[in-house]
Specification:
The chain is an alpha/beta fold and 543 residues long. It has helices at residues 10-15, 22-28, 128-137, 151-162, 191-204, 216-228, 247-252, 286-293, 306-317, 335-338, 344-347, 350-356, 372-394, 414-426, 430-437, 439-446, 513-530, and strands spanning 44-54, 63-72, 74-80, 99-102, 107-110, 112-117, 140-145, 170-175, 208-211, 232-235, 257-259, 321-323, 398-399, 466-469, 485-489, 494-498, 501-506, 509-512. Helix content is 32%, strand content 17%.
């Protein structure tokens, strides 16, 4: 969603920071503070998680009860210790650990991976701590920043997270070509310049490249050089360039991940070579931009057609990853619902409310005249888009979970679970969705580097990144939201909240997810007390 060509966008702010000092960068997005005492327990010489039901990330059936042994930051044993509803024979269990975690009746999954993230998202950018804790509270233990922030800042935060000096997911850092502190682009960009930037950025330590908007010969050089150097790739194919370089073109040149939907429908246009647009169309008018794009579902070859199936097969042949980030666009089909989600009042900063209200200059805040006709077209757009995602999944293609928070109420952490629900709406099964949240994105991150996965599955030898919830997520994905799910308690006659991630484990360190959310809520209250206009904003406000 974030658009580096618009001066008000978060990513534009990031790009403008090239060449600033560390102090100036810190004023844009404050780094996370060091972990405090009581923020996470561990790692332990020997952690034993007892009696849990394991959803291992492969798509295999859940198994339990299981005992899992972790030594420091690695899983060393995954042992079946019985069958359901039968007392466990204690003689068959692993020896006692230095830390015991009773997870009887709970469900354990690999840590979730978000393949499309940014830290910040408004002129008054949230503290990094705020963003990281929302991710971790929802079980997200790995993120791919595209980018997370300025290059030097991001790489520094990545290393701090790797050392567990901060409460944060592990980080992979992707950057848009020709950005980064210290890089000076010549007035004219050539394929040679593109290759030079890739080599320079690789030396800086980046993990991959995010294409956005350049001419095809430039993008081809970036992808080719990046592949030689073991860098991953993803692309937001800007609508100002996608007419020359659609998703099929990009994949043919070596693109690894197609994110969002940009370039996808352009590769399926029927009876035309360019999308149909009104005569007064202007890309710089955000509402006009998305209103027009929502009508493209009527302009493409239909599901099941030769052209539709050929594109799917082309992606599959090239091992393409589809990372739809549907949650970033869900407000387009129901603005009222997105802007009044139940978690916003407690966990959204007032500065985020202020930024997100209808505004002609802030990126992705264009709902100044959003109509039922616009929502009608976007509901149909989602229907067609979801059917493409479903068909690709069914033929063995990899579909992953990504979010692109924060824009149009796609909200850190919560939007990750919403993305799962949207994949369920598309027709993927809950087990397939967990695989799309764990194994598949883990593979997408390490395969360009020629390495095996170190997370994404519950297996001996892999890193101890795990999510534990006290309800069955396969029966109800809503139990993964920080706000949990509502259920009527027939014994008391009262509505209660159930679920919410109980523990997020990263590198063998156990985090209380509810405490992380409480920390976020306290940050919101602190800003409300210091931001004078905070009383005039909130759910349903019209300023």
């Amino acid at each position: 969603m974030c658009d580096p060509l618009r001066p008000s966008s978060m990513l534009a702010v990031i790009l403008l920071t090239a060449g600033l000092s560390w102090a100036q960068l810190d004023n844009r997005i404050n780094p996370a503070p060091n972990r405090k005492p009581g923020e996470g327990e561990g790692p332990f010489a020997r952690l034993v998680i007892r009696g849990v039901t394991v959803i291992d990330g492969t798509g295999a059936q859940p198994r339990g009860p299981m005992d899992i042994v972790v030594e420091k930051n690695r899983i060393v044993e995954v042992r079946s210790v019985g069958v359901p509803h039968v007392p466990i024979d204690e003689k068959g269990r692993p020896p006692k650990g230095t830390k015991e975690l009773d997870a009887t009746g709970m469900y354990l999954m690999p840590g979730f991976v978000d393949l499309h993230t940014h830290t910040g998202g408004a002129p008054k950018a949230p503290e990094a701590e705020y963003v990281y804790k929302l991710w971790m509270a929802h079980g997200v233990t790995t993120v791919r920043g595209v980018p997370s922030g300025p290059m030097d800042w991001t790489l520094h935060e990545r290393e701090r997270s790797a050392r567990n000096e901060i409460v944060a997911p592990r980080m992979y850092s992707y950057f848009v070509p020709f950005t980064g502190e210290g890089w000076k682009s010549p007035p004219v960009i050539t394929p040679g310049t593109a290759r030079e930037w890739v080599r320079w950025a690789k030396q800086k330590g980046i993990d991959g490249i995010k294409l956005f908007g350049d001419d095809p010969e430039i993008e081809a050089a970036v992808l080719d050089e990046g592949k030689k150097l073991g860098l991953g790739s993803t692309a937001h194919l800007s609508q100002t360039y996608v007419v020359r370089f659609n998703a099929r073109d990009a994949v043919g040149m070596g693109l690894g991940t197609v994110t969002h939907y940009y370039g996808l429908f352009e590769a399926l246009l029927r009876d035309r070579s360019l999308p149909a647009l009104p005569a007064d169309q202007n890309y710089n008018d955000d509402q006009m931009r998305w209103s027009a794009y929502g009508r493209s579902w009527e302009q493409i070859y239909p599901r099941g057609s030769k052209q539709w199936n050929e594109l799917l097969q082309f992606f599959l042949d090239h091992h393409t990853v589809l990372d739809p980030t549907m949650s970033a666009y869900v407000a387009l089909r129901d603005r009222m619902r997105a802007g009044t989600a139940e978690w916003l009042e407690k966990y959204a900063l007032p500065s985020m409310w202020a930024y997100s209200e209808p505004n002609r200059t802030n990126h992705a805040t264009w709902f100044y005249d959003w109509t039922s006709e616009d929502e009608y077209h976007w509901k149909n757009f989602f229907r067609v888009w979801m059917s493409f995602v479903k068909d690709y999944n069914d033929m063995g293609g990899r579909v992953t979970c990504g979010t692109d928070s924060f824009s149009i109420w796609s909200f850190y952490g919560f939007s990750y679970i919403e993305e799962m629900e949207l994949l369920r709406e598309a027709g993927l099964s809950p087990l397939e969705i967990i695989r799309s949240a764990t194994l598949y994105p883990a593979q997408a991150l390490v395969e360009p580097q020629g390495k095996p996965i170190e997370f994404g599955l519950i297996r001996p030898g892999l890193l101890a990144d795990m999510v534990i919830v006290d309800q069955n997520p396969l029966a109800n994905l809503k139990v993964l939201y920080g706000t949990g799910a509502m259920r009527l308690n027939d014994q008391t006659g009262k509505v209660e909240r159930i679920g919410g991630v109980k523990y997020t484990i990263k590198d063998g360190i156990i985090y209380d997810a509810k405490k992380l959310l409480a920390d976020v809520a306290a940050m919101v209250q602190k800003q409300k007390a210091t931001m004078k206009e905070s009383e005039a904003i909130g759910p349903g406000s019209i300023r």
